[in-house]
Amino acid sequence: MKKQTRLGEACCCALEERFEVIHVLGSGSQGRASGSLQTCIRHEIDMMRAVQGSENVLPLHSCFDNSDGFAHLITQFCSEGSLLDIVLRNIHSQGQAKGGKAATAKPLLPEPDTAAVVASVANALVVYHSHGLVHRDVKLENVFVHDKVIASDTARTCSSKRRNGPLVNSSKKKLLHKEDIFLADFGVADLLAPQEPVLKGHAGTPMYMAPEVLQGRPYDHHADIWSLGVLMHLLLTGLPLPAHGKPHPLVQDYGAWDLLLGMLSCNPADRLTAEQVLSHGWIATWVSSL
Fold first, then answer.
1. Which of 37, 107, 118, 217 is least enclosed, having the fewest CB within 10 Å?
2. In which domain, by residue range, is 227 found?
3. Membrane spanning segments where (predicted)?
4. Are 225 and 145 within one domain?
């Protein structure tokens, strides 16, 4: 693990001196994402530094202490955007939104792609959990995909076209690759204290929250596994997890069903660990290299 440094030691010059802010990519409750910056707080910097250099964790390239009083993080640019961006583009290209009619529930990603996503996020969570960190906000919006070929094509376009978002060659049906999928942390992750290895209070996104978090009970890294299960269920079915917590019958593959049951146990102690998710047979079926 790299030695952690204070913010002032790494932030040695103004943002504008080294980067041009092209456009705002999006915003959330914890900050704003721009084409070349992410504004957030010192706590997030410490959390991100702890897991840097690990596969499937969004790379942090640099940080800056700007005159506006904020810390600016320079992270990997992911050409495909978040999983939510990809899902919405897929829905649009398939014509599901035409006519204002409700679309029939169907998978948001092909099964091999879903397996690659689950393996990538689980791999990142192994690193988080080994450092005593709980991510607390695993969801579509916080998983990013970078396609090196598309990124190269995008870099050669003019900035006016770039403002409209990543350019995607929809004629090419390419599977997601595990090494191109990254879990991002936008300020919600927290550290388990050795003397009391549990967290308290609501954090994250309600649809993905584990029962113990929603109920206001103490929780730990097992809450991340529940969130990953909800994400996997959503990608496989196009539906949120039913209130009873059991997978929807649309999940017909036995291996996928078994993995979901292992992640979605209401008892945190009975849930799989991130390492066990990685070694599950359903993951091995689709992901050749973990």
1. 217
2. 81-286
3. none
4. yes
